[in-house]
Design a protein that fits this description.
The chain is an alpha/beta fold. 40% of the residues lie in helices and 12% in strands. It has 19 helices and 22 strands.
C-alpha cells in the first residue's frame, strides 16, 4: 500500500532524476528511493530565466515541494501525479503570507489616513508661530499660543485654553506648574497661590480640582490677573464643594460684573464661610449683588471688601441686607467711600442685626457726623460687637465724645482702633474718662491722634485702676519726655500692659531713661516698641542698664530708626552677656548707624547667650 507519510531516508538510498522533469524542461527532479521501497521526490520548479508579467510584474520563486510516493523509480504515472498535486495544493507558507498581508494592508492604510487628517486639522486649528509673533506687539519676544480644546481627564484641560507662552519650554514649565497646583488643591488643607499671575485660563485649569474636593478648606487665589470672565470657571464647581471654607480672590480686578457672577454661583454653595474680595475694583453694583447674596446665604461668616469703590449707595445696599441675615459676623469695608451718609445707613442696618461681631470701616472719611450716627446704631445693636475699627476717619474731639459714650455703654467691646484720627488731648481725656467705666476693653489704639503730654497723662491715670487693658498703642503722638515720664511712673507698679507701643513719640534720651527705669520694676510688659525716638547711644545705654537687671517679662524690644551707633550696641551686647536669666528673644536694630564692629558685638552676645542658656535671641539689623 502506498504511504502518504513523509519519506524516511535509510542508508544507501538511490537517487535519480525524474524523467517527467527532464521532459518538461525543468532543471531537475530528484527522486530518492529507500531500500524498503518507499521513495520521496523533490521537484524543483524554477524558471530558466526570470520573466516579468506585464500586469503583475513580479518574479516567481523556486518552490521545493516534498512528496511521498510508493511507486518505483521508473514509474512515470507517479511522477505526473506528484506534479499535479504540487500544482493544485499551495504551500503552507504562502497561505500565511497572504493572511498577514490581508491584515497589514488595511492597518497601514488606516494609519496613513489618520496621520494625514491630523496634519490637516493641526494646520487649520493651530496658527503658525511666525504668524502669532507677527500679529503680537513688537516686544522683542515671540509668543506661542495654544488655543483650541484639550480633551483630557486632567482637571481643567477640557476647557478652552488661551495660555500664552514665550516658547515651547515655557509652555511645558507653565503646564507642569498648573498640574502641580492642581495636585496641591487635592492634597493640602490650606493652599496659597497668591501672586502667581496665572490669569483666567489658569483658573479654568485649576477650578475643576475644587469640584467635590474633600481636602482643601482654605484657598488663596489673590493677585492672579483673574477677571470677571475667569470667575465663570467656578460655575458648577463651588456648588458641588462642601468642604471649602475660605476663598480669597483679593487683588483681582473682577469689578461689578465679576461680583455679580460670583454671587450667583455662591447662592448654590453652603460651605464657604469667609469671602475675601479686597482691592477687586468692586463698586456699588457689586455691593448690591453681595447684599442680595447676604439675604439668602446662610453660611458666610466674614466678608472682606477693603479698598474698593463702594460709596454711599453700596453701603446702603449692604445695610439693607443686615436685618435679613443672621449669620454674618465680620464685615470689612476699609478704604472705601462711605462717608457720613454711608456710615449712617450702615448704622440703621446694624440696629436690626443680631449676629455681627466685627465692623471694620477704616479710611471712609465718615467724620464726626458719621461716627455719631454709627455709635448711635451700635448702641442700639441687639448683638454683641467685640471689635470696632474706625481709624483714619477724620474724627475730631467732637466725634471722640460719641465714641466715649459708646465705650461707657458697651459690655462686649474688646478691641477699639482710633488710629490716625485727630482727637487731640481733648478727645483723649474723654476716652480716658470712658475707660474708667468700661469693663470689657483689652486693647485700644490711640496712635496718630495728636495727643501730647496732657492727653497721655489722662490715659496713664486710667491704668492705675484698669487691669483689663493689655495692649496700648500710642505711637505717632508727640508726647515727649514728660509724657513718657507720666506713663512710666504708672507702669512701674500698676496696670497689666503687655504690649506698649511708643514709636515716633519724640521721647528722646530723657524719655528712654524713664522707660528704662520702669522696666526694672514692671513685670508685665513683654513687647516694647521705641522706634524713631532719637535715643542715640545714650538712650541705648540707659536701656542696657535695665537689661542687666532680671526681667522675667520682656521678650521683644524694637529700637529701629534711633541713630544708635557702635557704642550703644556695645552697651547692649554687654548687658546681654551679663544677665544669665535674660528673657529677650527678639531685638530690632534696623536703620541705625551700626558698623560691622557693632553688629559683630551683638551677634557675639547672642551666641554667648545661646551657649550659656540655650536660649535663642533673634537680632535684626
Amino acid at each position: 500500500m502506498a504511504s502518504t507519510s513523509a519519506a524516511s531516508l535509510s542508508t544507501h538510498p538511490k537517487i535519480g532524476f525524474h524523467p517527467f522533469a527532464r521532459k518538461k524542461g525543468f532543471d531537475s527532479s530528484i527522486l530518492i528511493t529507500s531500500s524498503s521501497g518507499y521513495s520521496a521526490q523533490l521537484v524543483a520548479f524554477p524558471q530558466p530565466s526570470i520573466s516579468f508579467n506585464r500586469k503583475k510584474r513580479f518574479a516567481r520563486l523556486i518552490n521545493l515541494v516534498p512528496r511521498a510516493s510508493s511507486s518505483s523509480s521508473t514509474g512515470g504515472t507517479g511522477g505526473r501525479r506528484v506534479y499535479r498535486q504540487s500544482q493544485a495544493e499551495p504551500a503552507l507558507s504562502s497561505v500565511r503570507v497572504k493572511e498577514a498581508v490581508s491584515m497589514i494592508i488595511p492597518a497601514g492604510v488606516f494609519v496613513v489616513v489618520t496621520f494625514v487628517l491630523w496634519k490637516l486639522v493641526e494646520k487649520v486649528l493651530v496658527p503658525k508661530q511666525g504668524n502669532t509673533a507677527s500679529s503680537a506687539p513688537s516686544s522683542g519676544k515671540s509668543k506661542f499660543s495654544l488655543p483650541g480644546i484639550k480633551w483630557s481627564f486632567a482637571p481643567g484641560t477640557n476647557m478652552s485654553s488661551g495660555l500664552s507662552f514665550t516658547d515651547e519650554t515655557d509652555r511645558r514649565m507653565k503646564k507642569q506648574m498648573l498640574n502641580d497646583f492642581a495636585k496641591e488643591l487635592k492634597s493640602f488643607r490650606s493652599v496659597n497661590m497668591s501672586g502667581l499671575r496665572f490669569g483666567d485660563d489658569g483658573l479654568f485649569f485649576l477650578a475643576e480640582s475644587l469640584a467635590y474636593n474633600q481636602i482643601a478648606e482654605e484657598v488663596d487665589f489673590s493677585a492672579n490677573d483673574i477677571t470677571a470672565a475667569g470667575l465663570k470657571a467656578f460655575d458648577g464647581v463651588l456648588q458641588s464643594n462642601i468642604v471649602l471654607k475660605t476663598l480669597n480672590l483679593s487683588g483681582n480686578l473682577i469689578g461689578d460684573e465679576g461680583a455679580k457672577c460670583l454671587c450667583d454661583i455662591l447662592l448654590g454653595n453652603s460651605s464657604i464661610q469667609k469671602l475675601q474680595l479686597n482691592s477687586a475694583n468692586v463698586g456699588d453694583e457689586g455691593a448690591k449683588a453681595i447684599a442680595e447674596l447676604l439675604k439668602k446665604n446662610t453660611s458666610l461668616r466674614a466678608i472682606e471688601l477693603n479698598n474698593n469703590l463702594i460709596d454711599y449707595s453700596g453701603f446702603t445696599s449692604l445695610a439693607g441686607a443686615l436685618p435679613e441675615n443672621n449669620t454674618i459676623q465680620s464685615i470689612h469695608l476699609n478704604g472705601n467711600y462711605g462717608g457720613a451718609l454711608g456710615a449712617a445707613a450702615l448704622a440703621k442696618g446694624i440696629e436690626g442685626n443680631k449676629s455681627l461681631r466685627e465692623l471694620h470701616v477704616h479710611g471712609n472719611a465718615i467724620g464726626n457726623e458719621g461716627v455719631r450716627a454709627l455709635m448711635t446704631g451700635l448702641s442700639a445693636h441687639r448683638g454683641k460687637i467685640t471689635l470696632l475699627d474706625i481709624s483714619n476717619n477724620e474724627i475730631g474731639p467732637k466725634g471722640a465724645y460719641h465714641v466715649a459714650e459708646y465705650i461707657k455703654k458697651s459690655k462686649n467691646l474688646l478691641w477699639l482702633n482710633l488710629y490716625m484720627n485727630d482727637i487731640s488731648d481733648e478727645g483723649a481725656e474723654k476716652v480716658a474718662d470712658a475707660l474708667k467705666q468700661n469693663r470689657s476693653l483689652t486693647a485700644i489704639d490711640l496712635g496718630g491722634n495728636n495727643i501730647h503730654t496732657k492727653g497721655v497723662t489722662d490715659v496713664a491715670q486710667v491704668l492705675k485702676d484698669n487691669s483689663l487693658i493689655t495692649s496700648l498703642e500710642l505711637g505717632y503722638n508727640p508726647i515727649g519726655p514728660e509724657g513718657a515720664k507720666a506713663l512710666a511712673e504708672v507702669l512701674k507698679f500698676h496696670g497689666k500692659i503687655e504690649i506698649l507701643k511708643l514709636g515716633w513719640c519724640q521721647i528722646g534720651v530723657k524719655g528712654a531713661e524713664y522707660i528704662a527705669d520702669a522696666l526694672k520694676y514692671n513685670t508685665t510688659i513683654s513687647t516694647l516698641d521705641l522706634r524713631a525716638n532719637g535715643l542715640g547711644d545714650d538712650g541705648a545705654a540707659c536701656l542696657a542698664r535695665s537689661l542687666k537687671v532680671v526681667n522675667e517679662a520682656l521678650t521683644s524690644l524694637d529700637l529701629g530708626f534711633n541713630e544708635i551707633r557702635d557704642k550703644g550696641a556695645f552697651a547692649i551686647a554687654q548687658a546681654l552677656k551679663s544677665n544669665g536669666d535674660i528673657t529677650i528673644t527678639s531685638m530690632n536694630f534696623a536703620s541705625n548707624f551700626l558698623t560691622k564692629l557693632g553688629q559683630v558685638a551683638l551677634t557675639d552676645a547672642r551666641d554667648h547667650v545661646y551657649e550659656m542658656t540655650e536660649k535663642e535671641v533673634n537680632i535684626f539689623f
